[in-house]
Amino acid sequence: MSKKKYKKSSLARRNMHKFLANRLAMLGLVLLIVVIVLSVAAPVFTKHDPAFNDATIRYQAPSSEHILGTDSIGRDLWARLIYGGRFSLIIGIASAIGTSLIGVILGCVSGYYGGKVDAVIVYISEIFYSFPQLLLVLILVGFAGRGWVNLILIFSLTGWIFGFRIVRSKILSLREETFVDACRANGIGGLSIMFRHMLPNTLGPVIVNLTLSTAGFVLNEAALSFIGLGVEAHIPTWGNMINAAKSFVVLQNYPVVWIAPGIAISLFVLGINFFGDGLRDVYDPGQ
């Protein structure tokens, strides 16, 4: 084994031990695994169809047949909870990946080329940053309409600023390094230098930002669905479940209808924040 490979292996081992020693990070990882397994393998954990309704069993109390009871039109709450996790997680994860891709590409181009290219991209980012993201999302949803695909696209187009700033600042410092000059001297193209040689040195903060952004987008989806501007009402998501429980009668007399999705959102957000903080400790050079 070469010395370089040994150093990489040793660093990876130290990072792994550091992460495993972080109890909150491990708790977050366990919470994430539980939520993801329940959502992905939903048919294994329930025999009920989340869309099937039976008006004769409206607001039924929790029982062996319906673990969490039923909602206002007789749909099984447990089935809607774990099936709803699928769409909420898809929206959160896909939006975080989309924002990271846009931020990484623009950050690399802006930081590497500098000059007018950098000035134009930074100016565009400042325009986006001058408006609250949720306000931009509400405006774009008003034009594009509801739907989980639309939400992913809108979240991706409005949430790339922070990732862009992280990557740009790292690329600006890296482009003066000796290995970049060596790449240019050997005739390696700009795209190859950016994405093959410089980008890997920025992946730590990007991965941390991706995990923490996922939690934010899940919360944004729930907020938009709650006010009727998110995913279509017939699609089970945690936000739609809370939306269906916003009447005063339900809040007062049938608390499980809104407590269940609220707990699911809280556990997922808590888990991914603990997990992201653990990754931040691992990749923080000051630690």
How would you portray this structure in words?
By secondary structure, the protein is an all-alpha fold. The chain has a domain at 92-287: MetI-like (MetI-like fold, Orthogonal Bundle). Helices cover 73% and strands 0% of the residues. The chain is built from 14 helices and no strands. The protein has helices at residues 3-20, 23-40, 42-45, 77-113, 115-129, 133-144, 148-158, 161-174, 178-185, 190-198, 203-226, 238-243, 248-253, 256-283. The longest helix has 37 residues, at 77-113. It is elongated, with a radius of gyration of 23 Å. The relative contact order is 0.15.
Summarize the topology:
Blueprint: H1 3-20, H2 23-40, H3 42-45, H4 77-113, H5 115-129, H6 133-144, H7 148-158, H8 161-174, H9 178-185, H10 190-198, H11 203-226, H12 238-243, H13 248-253, H14 256-283
Helix pairs in contact: 1-14, 2-4, 2-14, 4-5, 4-7, 4-8, 4-11, 4-14, 6-7, 8-11, 11-14
List keywords for this structure.
73% helix; 287 residues; MetI-like fold; mainly alpha; elongated
